[in-house]
Automatic annotation (TrEMBL):
S-adenosyl-L-methionine binds at C283, A284, A285, P286, G287, G288, K289, D304, D330, D346. Residues 190-466 form the SAM-dependent MTase RsmB/NOP-type domain. Belongs to the class I-like SAM-binding methyltransferase superfamily. RsmB/NOP family. This is RsmB/NOP family class I SAM-dependent RNA methyltransferase.
């Protein structure tokens, strides 16, 4: 088949930068670490960053959570700030586009090359197509890394030829969305959500997610809209088009806002004013919803099983000048007889809904994870039901797109617990939530493509404990 005329279907995106601030980890796209003046492009600085990216990708593909583990090893932490930032940015781009990149490799080779060679081609292509890295640097560093290893050395000519050929072709062609994600997830979501939805959900991967912020009050949000280059997307929420180190963004030090995807902010947004009420946040870390509950006026008890992650709740509360009672405990066996006006169960889950920001969940998750986590959610719900005061609210949510962790879980809970009734939310009550994200049953099933610019995938059910 002959190629269409050289017409790139992809443009390197232009990003707005935060005013006059230094570059930061997570800032994308990013320049490759600069070579020292007397060194050629194959200097160790550039190579180390790319080798770091390869390690992150390998770990992410190996198992769930591998990306974060690899990012906290001593070896990775030895890299300089700019090398780490580059490595993370490159690895995330590869993971977001993995299906597409592998599809290109498949088309360009007669026989799929070994995994180590594919890994190199992926990082080369991601730099060429999506990063502000000069094409020659992307090619030469990739070939240089290939030369270092017996397994990849014989393929360095092939790598060089493929990457240069792609540069000559001038850009990426669109790809069937089915190629963008692992087949098992595509099939699963196809069954659950239908073809149009699953294709749109896959295409979300091709967009760079913006940063959403939650505020203590709408007056601060409105006042800061311009400075934070934001768009109001909820009563207390903003979508900012800024990039870069958010510690330098307006009012960060004043603790007026925190980063939180709009979907993640929605469970607490559903609750009204909580002044004078008590709230139990049982899977609290890193604390995004804890601080929302405090901001709404509740006295909050926050629990998390992970000591390390709980430290982040403490740090967040401190920065925002807020307080909560904190416990490091397993919520399923938390020995505390108190009942609360609000109990929030933001349960551990497969996190498949977070794939826009954490594309590693697509490739590290396995079908068996969902069943295991559904068991944990079941246990947590049963253990916590009695902590809800009569007439109190129980909000259950997961950042998962799997029914077993959402709809099925809540239907089963309601069958087991006659003391609870589902609160039916409607689109009329919530003009800020995409109407398609509110299910006829009254719970919320937020799909990533249902909001312009995307949102995390979430399931949210709001239950009321009946009065005695
Ligand atoms: C989805 S995250 C919570 C996110 C958090 N609510 C927020 O908005 O920032 C799930 C949390 O549940 C915690 N967790 C898992 N199992 C738990 C258990 N049995 N008891 C308490 N916390 C648990 C994990 O450590 C993790 O921090």
């Amino acid at each position: 088949m002959s190629l269409p005329p050289k017409k790139p279907t992809f443009k390197k995106p232009a990003f707005k930068k935060a005013p006059f601030k230094k570059p930061s980890p997570g800032d994308r796209p990013i320049k490759a670490p600069k070579p020292a003046p007397d060194e050629s492009m194959d200097n160790d600085i550039g190579l180390n960053a790319r080798l770091g990216a390869l390690k992150l990708i390998e770990a992410a593909l190996d198992h769930r959570g591998g990306f974060d583990e690899a990012g906290s090893t001593a070896e990775f932490l030895k890299l300089s700030d700019s090398e780490r930032a580059f490595a993370r940015a490159l690895a995330l781009l590869v993971l977001r586009r993995l299906g597409h990149l592998d599809h290109i490799i498949h088309n360009k080779t007669q026989k799929m090359p070994p995994e180590a060679v594919r890994a190199l081609l992926r990082i080369g292509m991601a730099q060429i197509f999506f990063m502000q890295v000069p094409d020659f640097a992307a090619v030469s560093t990739t070939v240089k890394i290939a030369e270092r290893d017996n397994k990849t050395r014989p393929f360095k000519g092939l790598i060089n030829a493929i990457l240069r050929g792609l540069i000559r072709e001038g850009g990426l062609r669109d790809v069937n969305p089915k190629k963008l994600m692992p087949d098992w997830l595509w099939q699963r979501w196809l069954q659950t959500y239908g073809e149009d939805n699953v294709a749109a959900m896959a295409n979300v991967l091709t967009e760079e997610p913006a940063t959403d912020l939650s505020f203590r009050n709408s007056a601060d949000r409105d006042r800061l809209l311009e400075k934070l280059e934001g768009e109001a997307i909820g009563e207390l929420n903003m979508r900012s088009s800024l990039r870069g180190d958010l510690r330098h963004w307006e009012a960060y030090e004043d603790g007026l806002w925190w980063v939180q995807d709009i979907a993640a902010a929605t469970p607490v947004n559903l609750l009204g004013d909580l002044t004078g009420k008590t709230a139990l946040d049982v899977c609290a870390a890193p604390g995004g919803k804890t601080v929302q509950l405090v901001a709404k006026g509740a006295s909050v008890v926050a629990i998390d099983r992970s000591k390390n992650r709980l430290k982040r709740v403490e740090d967040n509360l401190k920065r925002l000048g807020m307080t909560a009672e904190i416990h490091n405990a397993d919520a399923a066996s938390f020995d505390d007889p108190r009942q609360f006006d609000v109990v929030l169960v933001d349960a551990p889950c497969s996190a498949t809904g977070t794939y826009r920001r954490q594309p590693d969940v697509l490739w590290g998750s396995k079908p068996a994870d969902v069943a295991k986590l559904a068991d944990v959610q079941h246990r947590l719900l049963d253990a916590l039901a009695d902590r809800v005061a009569p007439n109190g609210d129980l909000v259950y949510c997961t950042c998962s797109l799997e029914r077993e962790e959402g709809e099925t879980q809540i239907l089963a809970f309601l069958r087991r617990n006659k003391a609870f009734t589902l609160v039916k939310h409607t689109a009329d009550q919530h003009p800020d939530i995409p109407a398609a994200s509110i299910a006829p049953e009254g719970w919320l099933r937020l799909l990533p493509h249902q909001r312009k610019g995307g949102q995390d995938g979430f399931f949210i059910a709001h239950l009321k404990r009946n009065p005695v």
